[in-house]
């Protein structure tokens, strides 16, 4: 059964986050739980600045599940990417990503996902084969590091306005086949799919064996239902292929944090019934 989560920005971040709430995590968890969210997703960059035990305790207090740790600000703020612009590997980025995997394994449930989005780095468009080989090597090394810790990796296809390689769902599927590790899959984002993919619904069907999490917002980056994406059909397609993971909101906090969080889940609950939860 599909569940609903929201991105939250952890206190180590300084730049704005595509999330309704950032910084004050106890307050964020309380608000999201009261609205009926099933879980949260962390956007973070440096786990050494976080209190993992406290985060786990606050999640448990509000009966929220951590569905994923997102790493976009590893690149967005610290400009650490796995593959450099000369198609070589970046050891500092590899070290940071492994630190995030260690953090995930130490404090959260076995099987929690760590996302690889912009943190994969830009690569070199003039050397596509070398760049893709470098991505493959980096992803395989990280997957092998994460596997004994019970951590999964989710590669996110991203629009070409932000990244240079692995733009479409089909690009992501091909990379999953190249990496060929059981703990390496995809996280599909309907915002990017709407820009890069020929057919969102066909892409979901093609990726059914690889897709472990879905990011949602409307095509204007605001809450679902604020523009023209067809969430009845999106959720219906996910149900059709047997998807039972999270749809996680990554969106602008528009027009304000509380309204965006409320409007998002109200729209998604038209298609996703709530799960029974213990009283808060």
Task: Outline the structure in words.
The structure is a single chain. An eight-stranded parallel barrel has the order 1-3-4-5-6-7-8-9, surrounded by six helices. By secondary structure, the protein is α/β, with parallel strands linked by helices. Helices cover 39% and strands 16% of the residues. It has helices at 25-35, 52-61, 72-76, 91-107, 128-146, 169-179, 190-196, 200-206, 231-240, 257-268, and strands at residues 3-9, 21-22, 39-43, 65-70, 113-116, 152-155, 184-189, 211-216, 246-249. The model has no long low-confidence stretch (mean pLDDT 97). The chain is built from ten helices and nine strands. The two termini are 22 Å apart.
Helices and strands in order:
Blueprint: E1 3-9, E2 21-22, H1 25-35, E3 39-43, H2 52-61, E4 65-70, H3 72-76, H4 91-107, E5 113-116, H5 128-146, E6 152-155, H6 169-179, E7 184-189, H7 190-196, H8 200-206, E8 211-216, H9 231-240, E9 246-249, H10 257-268
Parallel strand pairs: 1-2, 1-3, 1-9, 3-4, 4-5, 5-6, 6-7, 7-8, 8-9
Task: Give a short overview.
Helix content is 39%, strand content 16%.
């Amino acid at each position: 059964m599909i569940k609903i989560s929201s991105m939250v920005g952890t206190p180590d971040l300084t730049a704005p986050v595509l999330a309704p709430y950032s910084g004050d995590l106890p307050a964020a968890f309380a608000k999201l739980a009261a609205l009926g969210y099933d879980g949260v997703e962390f956007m973070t960059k440096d786990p050494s600045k976080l209190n993992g035990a406290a985060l786990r305790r606050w999640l448990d207090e509000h009966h929220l599940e951590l569905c994923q740790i997102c790493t976009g600000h590893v690149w967005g703020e610290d400009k650490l990417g796995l593959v450099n612009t000369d198609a070589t590997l970046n050891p500092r980025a590899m070290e940071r990503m492994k630190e995030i995997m260690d953090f995930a394994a130490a404090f959260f449930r076995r099987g929690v996902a760590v996302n690889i989005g912009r943190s994969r780095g830009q690569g070199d468009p003039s050397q596509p084969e070398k760049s893709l080989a470098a991505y493959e090597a980096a992803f395989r090394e990280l997957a092998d590091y994460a596997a004994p810790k019970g951590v999964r990796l989710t590669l996110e296809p991203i629009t070409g306005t932000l990244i240079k390689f692995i733009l479409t769902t089909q690009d992501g599927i091909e990379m999953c086949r190249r990496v060929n590790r059981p703990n390496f899959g995809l996280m599909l984002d309907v915002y990017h799919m709407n820009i890069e993919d020929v057919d969102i619904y066909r892409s979901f069907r093609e990726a059914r064996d690889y897709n472990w999490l879905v990011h949602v917002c409307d095509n204007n980056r605001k809450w679902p239902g604020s523009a023209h994406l067809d969430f009845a059909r999106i959720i219906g397609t996910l149900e059709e292929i047997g998807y039972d993971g999270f749809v996680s909101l990554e969106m602008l906090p528009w027009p304000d944090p509380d309204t965006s969080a409320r409007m998002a889940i109200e729209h998604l609950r038209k298609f996703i019934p709530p799960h029974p939860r213990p009283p808060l």
